[in-house]
Amino acid sequence: MVDLVHRPGEMREKVLDIAEPEGFGNAVIGVKQGSNVHIDVRLESLHDGILVSGTVDVDAEGECVRCLTDVSLPVEVEFQELFAYSEDEAFDYTVHEDHVDLEPVVRDAVVLALPFQPVCQADCLGLCPQCGVRLLDNPGHQHEAPVDPRWAALAGLDAEVPQDDTEKR
After folding, report:
1. Which pTM was predicted?
2. Residue 159 domain flag
């Protein structure tokens, strides 16, 4: 990148395939350690710094928040950030020794693109609240209606109706 620094108008394009060293994400879904992160990046030299634009393609893995099955979702996100030559409060990132560190930019872009509540499919019914059976696997799954606690004491009585005395005569 030395040929870009302080040379406004110069531009380079790079394709990077990197194995994620640490893994990142949220509590439900994320990019696992060792996952392949594909980055298409364009570096443009400006008067103030280097403008970095690109796209990230990666697979995120986690579990469905409704039925807890494993989920793998492709994530494609675009990013653009200016890396300034001088350290200034107006810029979040700076050029260090003729290099730009894309890791925090890529990480932030991917984490913000992850779904907050991933599902295995849009119409996932989740789990039965009484027994935990996955409802998509058992669409007709039902339980007996719960007994009203006010009538629970009568549940053990037989429903035998006494016969009318007129019938005995």
Report:
1. 0.72
2. no
